């Protein structure tokens, strides 16, 4: 039975308000269309028409063609219908190699930019369990995601990987998400941003801990590791199989008591926790994939999510293992199909997703692959909202609101972070104090790009006997008096003082390179420092990190 609903091209034209008959195509138009694109023997079944969406069941001739053939013809279908390539998608039926559904979204509803301040946060004062709305899909429905899991909704907790090339609108996309997070009442945010909070400055007051610079990020990662353990333990003790909104509140339910006698314990709640690593190519390069990986795998059961943003989604920035451990992806325009393939699952690319077609010409356009959203949606483009200068004052308002009404860090997370980061955490400054005193642990640009092991130190054998420095070995070359060479006991004392000084400055991860000036001042060699660092680790003053030659200071000052 042929009805008007059966003709794809007719419906597409109707939606676009073109006169269907003018083109000489009525309900019989589909045959011609399919023939033109090389699918002559395919048949179109039930067709549904929405305000800006036509979906049609497609059946291919048995044994002749497969769903892959349809995928290949998508650009030609778009051409035949005179639509942009991203307007046509195909969802293969997982049960059949020759059936699927063609989805056509004729009008690009994303072409008009939407300013963020026109709508502002979607659920101000709500819970992080409500959807985080970051824009719209091309059919006008909300573009949203969740970070915490929900057993009843059948949704897993996830981390998020955000990628896009310069100018693709990744920065504004991040602001959409961050303003959503900060307008909820049961979540705490930590942020590492090597770009000096360029995009996020108005929101800083609401961020519990914000760091820039390589060493400070290392410290934050060490703190995240420690909090994972403490938080998982807390959730277990309070009988939560995974984090849920009730965990963030004071524990008044006997079902979630840590007391043996089964009465309500009244413990303070544990807000959801997000650790956000901007331009993570830098931090990943510094920290190594393994460190990130292990964190990503364990954090989800601790009521924590990682948000990781990357400019170049490729193997040299992040391993496939880490990428997969992160789960959800938000992909803005990318330079080429390889980058798209790295970010999006094959099935999503096959269904028509092609972020390389936008590159940086369509800022804000993105694909979102995330738990809780039906897979058919993954290949639908969305657009995040635009942040202009006029958004700043509303961002500041959101931040001020969050300072008063948002979640405070809980004692469990706070203690675990302080036990590792010491004063770097306990004396952290927030944006509402002094903009210029943010923890910039080293401010050393070089440090941001390369290995943390100084090339000069790479060859050092830590097992080597303590070398006797030759006189003059460490003396300044010109114009300064040859300094006094400290005795071994003095040297150790100076070294202990140096560690205390690093600690008081919040520089909680150190290596020989950090002692360069100190060596010059004290007439001691870097190889002596390397050995002394190792000894200090044996004594418990330092602890090894995942990076060779980098040591974490075990806080003494915070504990005192
Ligand atoms: N949804 C949007 N609609 C319209 N313009 C947008 C949108 N999102 C971002 N833009 C604009 O596009 C340009 C690039 O955006 P943005 O700076 O966020 O890109 P980016 O990917 O973060 O680039 P970079 O990595 O260089 O910071 C900016 O001028 C921004 O205002």
From TrEMBL:
Species name: Streptomyces himastatinicus ATCC 53653
Record keywords, A-Z: ATP-binding, Nucleotide-binding
Domain FtsK, chain residue ranges per copy: 140-341
SUPFAM superfamilies given in the database record: P-loop containing nucleoside triphosphate hydrolases (SSF52540)
UniProt binding sites for ATP: 164-171
PROSITE patterns: FTSK
Bias type Acidic residues, positions: 442-473
Protein name according to UniProt: Putative sporulation-related protein
Region (Disordered): 414-486
A molecular function (GO) term: ATP binding
């Amino acid at each position: 039975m042929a009805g008007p609903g059966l003709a794809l091209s007719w419906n597409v034209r109707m939606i676009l308000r073109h006169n269907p008959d003018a083109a000489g195509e009525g309900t019989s138009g589909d045959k011609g269309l399919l023939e033109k694109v090389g699918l002559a023997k395919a048949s179109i079944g039930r067709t549904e028409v929405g305000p800006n969406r036509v979906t049609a069941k497609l059946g291919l001739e048995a044994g002749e063609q497969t769903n892959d053939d349809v995928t290949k013809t998508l650009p030609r279908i778009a051409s035949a219908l005179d639509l942009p390539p991203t307007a046509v998608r195909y969802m293969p039926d997982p049960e059949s190699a020759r059936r699927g559904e063609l989805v056509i979204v004729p009008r690009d509803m994303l072409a008009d930019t939407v300013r963020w301040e026109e709508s502002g946060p979607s659920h101000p004062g709500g819970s992080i369990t409500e959807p985080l709305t970051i824009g719209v899909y091309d059919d006008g429905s909300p573009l949203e995601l969740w970070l915490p899991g929900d057993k009843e909704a059948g949704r897993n907790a996830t981390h998020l990987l955000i990628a896009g090339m310069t100018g693709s609108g990744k920065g504004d996309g991040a602001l959409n998400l961050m303003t959503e997070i900060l307008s909820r009442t049961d979540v705490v945010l930590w942020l590492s941003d090597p770009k000096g909070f360029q995009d996020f400055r108005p929101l800083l007051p609401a961020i519990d801990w914000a760091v820039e610079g390589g060493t400070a990020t290392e410290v934050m990662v060490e703190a995240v590791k420690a909090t994972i353990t403490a938080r998982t333990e807390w959730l277990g003790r309070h009988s939560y199989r995974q984090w849920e909104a009730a965990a963030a509140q004071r524990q008044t339910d006997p079902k979630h008591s840590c007391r043996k006698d089964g009465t309500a314990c009244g413990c303070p709640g544990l807000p959801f926790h997000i650790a956000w690593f901007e331009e993570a190519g830098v931090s990943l390069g510094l920290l190594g994939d393994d460190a990130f990986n292990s964190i990503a795998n364990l954090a989800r059961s601790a009521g924590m999510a990682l948000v990781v943003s990357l400019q170049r989604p490729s193997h040299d920035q992040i391993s496939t293992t880490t990428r997969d451990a992160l789960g959800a992806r938000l992909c803005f325009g990318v330079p080429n199909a390889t980058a798209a393939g790295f970010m999006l699952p094959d099935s999503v690319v096959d269904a028509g997703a092609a972020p390389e077609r936008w590159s940086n010409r369509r800022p804000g356009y993105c694909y979102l692959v995330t738990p809780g959203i039906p897979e058919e949606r993954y290949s639908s483009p969305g657009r995040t909202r635009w942040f202009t200068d006029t958004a700043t004052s509303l961002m500041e308002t959101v931040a001020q609101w969050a300072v008063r009404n948002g979640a405070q860090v809980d004692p469990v997370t706070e203690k675990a972070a302080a036990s590792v980061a010491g004063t770097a955490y306990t004396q952290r400054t927030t944006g509402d104090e002094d903009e210029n005193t943010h923890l910039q642990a080293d401010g050393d640009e070089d440090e941001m790009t390369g290995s943390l092991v100084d090339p000069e130190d790479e060859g050092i054998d830590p097992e080597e006997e303590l070398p006797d420095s030759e006189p003059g070995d460490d003396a300044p070359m010109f114009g300064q008096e040859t300094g006094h060479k400290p005795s071994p006991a003095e040297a150790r004392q100076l070294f202990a003082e140096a560690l205390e000084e690093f600690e008081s400055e919040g520089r909680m991860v150190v290596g020989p390179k950090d002692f360069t000036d100190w060596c010059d001042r004290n007439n001691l060699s870097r190889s002596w420092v390397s050995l002394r660092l190792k000894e200090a680790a044996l004594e418990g003053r330092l602890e090894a990190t995942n990076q060779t030659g980098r040591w974490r200071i075990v806080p003494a000052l915070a504990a005192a």
